[in-house]
Amino acid sequence: MDIVLITTVIASLFLVIGVAEPLAARLRLPYSVILAAIGILIGVGAIFFLRTDLTDALNPVAEAILGLPIRSNVFLYIFLPTLLFQATLGMNLRRMLEDWVPILVLAVVAVVVATLSVGYALSWASALPLAACLLIGAIVSTTDPSAVVSIFRSISAPRRLARIIEGESLLNDAAAIALFGLFMGFVMLGVPDPSLADALARFPLLIAGGAFTGWLAARIALWFMALFRRHELAQLSISVALPYLAYIGAEQSIGASGVIAVVSAGLTLNLTGPGRLQPQAWTKLRELWDILAHWAGALIFILAALLIPRLLEEVRVADFLLVGVVILAAIAARVAILFGLLPLLSALKLSPSVERPYRVAILWGGLRGAVTLALALAVTESFRVPDGIQRVVGILATGFTLFTLIVQGATLRWVIGRLGLDRLSPIDEALSRQVVAVALQTVREDLARTTENYELSHDIVRSEAKGFGERLEEAVKTAEDSADILDRDRITLGLIALAGYERDTILVRLRERTISARMAEQVLSDADRLIEGARSDGRSGYNRAAKRSVTYGRAFRAAGLLHSRLHLSLPLARLTADRFELLLSQRLILRDLGAFIDGRIRRIHGRRVADLLRDSLSRRIDAVETALEGLRLQYPGYAEELERRFIRRTALRLEEREYATMREDGLIGAEVYTKLMQDLDQRRAAAEDRPQLDIALQRSELVRQFPLFATLDEPDLKRLSRVLKTRYVNAGDIIIGKDSTAKSVFFIASGAAEVETAGQTWRLGRGEMFGQMAILMRKTRRTEVRVITPSTLLELDEARFRRLLGRSATLQEAVRESAEKRGIAPDDLFADADA
């Protein structure tokens, strides 16, 4: 075939891609539906001109279109890895984990249920062998997210709904293709009735092997990309190779799922890439994959749609009945999952609730697309599949795909509108009115200054000002009409705006490299959690999310146990260093939010709301400062190193800005600017390296700073630092419960605790201890000790405490003072201890 003609056809396809998007927006239809329609028309037109006697002039073009090398391997090995990999890179994984139960149910359980439902329904309604029916069920069980997500984004549908559908479609491709491979093997081997247990038994191996292959490939790729830190084009090239090598490696080397391998590689890169790559390199990588996925998604739809006329050439009347069976069985399976299993899991507190409108949208949004057609094409190409089965598989998969695209796709926007998912909530409506009024007032002030600076004609200014003033008056009146909004709602709106501004500030700081890429995902995730918390539960939800961002998590506690029990300090050192940097980043961001409250929020929501938000912000700053001060006291040398690193990075950012300004002003040429930036990049790479934290050394320094241990000599201090155990506790944790027997004494290295006994309550701070009374008096006391801030405690067992007490006069005096505060005679206390 003429290479010029093929090139012309491919270039024309890209022209179609460019035209399809504005056409879809004008017709208010999903982009993928328009692409499929255009592809079908092109395929029908090519067949028509090739067979008609009207003219032979277009025969070469028709032959080139129909002769394109469209095979199932093209879809599965070229386009599919691109789409899956980009989808994983674009996901907010930490937010998606909050809905991991419904996502996994829809992505795995729903695929299995749909496969079985369609398979057994077809087996009952036709003479096909069960293996072929289950094969068809696996083919039609995978959904395509592009049409649905594009609609959601165009109408500002709830983010949670889009996240659930994106997560489902990402993982259900893997599940469906894995099942497809199993049942395809049975069909090619001529097994009419496969054992379902045998089929599903191979399923975990496919998933585990693919997940490991993808993870390993991503770790190797990240190592090379970090090695080529100063060569962004090299990093981009490695990222392009990663999904294809992972897919081929899993499929051809170990016989695992290539789809799972690509998803695993993408997830690994998504989670660890921002911390290993420079911010601008990560941004360019995401942009590159957005473009590649856009082209791949469009081409896969057009090329797959070109095949539809050929797949339907041998359709019979009875086939329409079987297509109807497939449609009913697939929808029934999806209804059972969405309206049966998910509500049951929510009632059992095993899954977050998915609102009924969301479930209806997910049901009707289960469109099938290019993956379904590609799998059907793979069946029709296989010479080991009987001809009769090839024909039926192609027709049923194609017919079902057309139904979802034409019927569901064309009506999906209407369904979403009927469900009310395209409308703002009452709170958001009120916010929009307030924002418009304040924005127009600001515009009027800026416009007045602009007209004065440019000395414009007074008549023109007066005429335009009149029209603008009328719009401003209408906006202010509309905002005042919503004055009956409850203060609680105004506070919620203010908190949402504050959290949104915090997220924007983080992105600015990240671009300026004031915040390291290592911390970027964590602080952004915390900001997203603040937004969602304020939306769902107002002030209390915001405060819970803020508290969570400074508390010690489960990973921290597990690392503490590894350090104290097994003397493995690396995990604890890494998490402590991360916590240091996270708290420094939070403090930097929170300091910038006060001006936003005093400016924007005060003008929109009034002084009272602004004062309440100021109060919430002050408490957040205090919590961060308390947690940071505790770490600084515990690791003073390390805190100093991190702050020095921050100053160096800030200086480099300011230096880069000065060079850019001089370049724009023409003070330096391109050659000088390039040389200066190369030197700057070398110094910046050195500043990015975080200093190492020595946990054991820092604990020894911490013990030496305790006033209670001031009289101990150097050998005793070293021995004490080795036997003391470090415990990291969150606010609200109970260290000593009522009626419990104390077996240890605790020293507060950082934070604060509250002691309650005999109806009295008092607080202890850094340098003080608790638990000593119960040990020395040798009896159970009704005392409860609760930590009130994230704290670091040093724990010493009873026997060592008694030996230490005998050697330390300072410790004896501290015990006496503590006993006097609680109304206990010190002499009696030590008499009991001596006894």
From TrEMBL:
The chain crosses the membrane at residues 6-24, 31-50, 70-89, 101-122, 128-149, 170-191, 203-228, 240-268, 288-308, 320-341, 361-380, 392-416. It is found in: Cell membrane. It is a multi-pass membrane protein. SUPFAM superfamilies: cAMP-binding domain-like. The keyword Plastid does not apply. One of its GO terms (molecular function) is potassium:proton antiporter activity. It holds the Pfam family Na_H_Exchanger. One of its GO terms (cellular component) is plasma membrane. Keywords: Cell membrane, Ion transport, Membrane, Sodium, Sodium transport, Transmembrane, Transmembrane helix, Transport. SMART domains: cNMP (SM00100). One of its GO terms (biological process) is sodium ion import across plasma membrane. The keyword Lyase does not apply. Residues 708-822 form the Cyclic nucleotide-binding domain. Its main location: membrane. Gene3D superfamilies: 6.10.140.1330, Jelly Rolls. This is Sodium/proton antiporter, CPA1 family.
